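[Automated response] Your request has been received and processed.

Submitted sequence:
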Amino acid sequence: MELLGMSPMRTKMTRIVTVLLLVGFILGVRGGEARKGKVTESFAYTGISCRRHTASITDFGGVGDGKTSNTKAFQDAVNHLSKYASDGGAQLYVPAGKWLTGSFSLTSHFTLYLQKHALLLASQDMKEWPVLKPLPSYGRGRDAAGGRFTSLIYGTNLTDVIVTGANGTIDGQGSFWWQKFHKGKLKYTRPYIIEFMYSDTIQISNLTLLNSPSWNVHPVYSSNILIKGIKILAPVKSPNTDGINPDSCTNVRIEDSYIVSGDDCIAVKSGWDEYGISFGMPTKQLVIRRLTCISPYSAAIALGSEMSGGIQDVRAEDITSVHTESGVRIKTARGRGGFVKDIFVRRMSLHTMKWVFWMTGNYKQHADNHYDPNALPVIQGINYRDIVANNVSMAARLEGIEGDPFTQICIANVTIGMAAKAKKVPWTCTDVEGITSGVSPRPCDLLPDQGQKKIAACDFPAEPLSIDRVVLKTCTYRVNHM
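Generated structure:
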């Protein structure tokens, strides 16, 4: 039937236009629905490098429901993005959601970015944790004589890697591992949350790490590392949940971080007994600043006990510690060999401590029975200044090794307020040598007071390390994801 008042040709054209409009409307609705399923988000971070290419974990089948395993999705994403390493690098964006995953490795010239409400959940399926050989500088695992489970996020022989976010969270779900550890049911050493080996130019920043199975952050045999703005939380009785453990590393900067843990907040290491001596790679040129620590059973900063490759030129400043066993602790023993020297600490604020200073040459844990008891460590050039502490049970416990004293100890401008039930003798010292100035309560006789004229002793190095000259770039992006 023709439309009233229209010619057949015009009527036909009108029908065609009407059909086209209807088709366009339907497609528009469908297109709108498709677009509605996509989310465009902008994000930014400061980093050692910016990236040319960006993808979301959802592009690789990632499902953020807290139940679906995303191990394959993460590894597929990294493998795909690795092809951009020589073309400006790439980054993987993890949006809000709960992303269950086992271990996965990263690649060079790469950024892993966790949005504010992104939560990585470590899998409790042990099949998703491959086993590695023991570290060569340790000779064995720390939990068991055999190998060790791969860390949740790890990489080997990498260059220019960033793990960062808008305070996104990684939950190691450690209670699963802690129970197995306490029951003696582990054949291998527990995994860490983040570990990089034999790598250079690494940044780990602006993240919250929860409930690690063991150590949280472990750079090993690596250099030029920046760890900044990290929050680490674990129950204070959880086993070996050290915060940050630079291990046989050079040029490391740790700053602006908050750690509550069941072990040392910062543990500086370089190998264990004969294995560390043979490997011979020290940790040196380490900066620690603006750290807040809570650890009732361990130290704010520990040097050792695995220090057989040597530790040298550590600079710590502006450290706050609350309810922590000790401020700075040096742990070593006969058989360790190696050295701890040129250690500089200043401006510590300590509240409720068992010891402010603790050095021990009698830390008897050994990798095996093959260590050389004549391999004696060298502990010298230990400098502490400008420290205030209150509610302290004992000012210092300094125990060198007979025939191998700890030397060149310098402590200046230190005020320690003793607790109501403090030990009657605030200082105990054996086999140590050094000086003090402006220290209260009065130190032991092995550290004679040089008077107020030496209040400026224990000088902190003025020349910055090369890692302090690293300037971060501002990187800004937009990403579409489901």
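Summary generated for your ticket: Residues 8-37 form the longest helix (30 residues). Residues 47 and 123 are 29 Å apart (CA to CA).
If you did not submit this request, please reply to this message.
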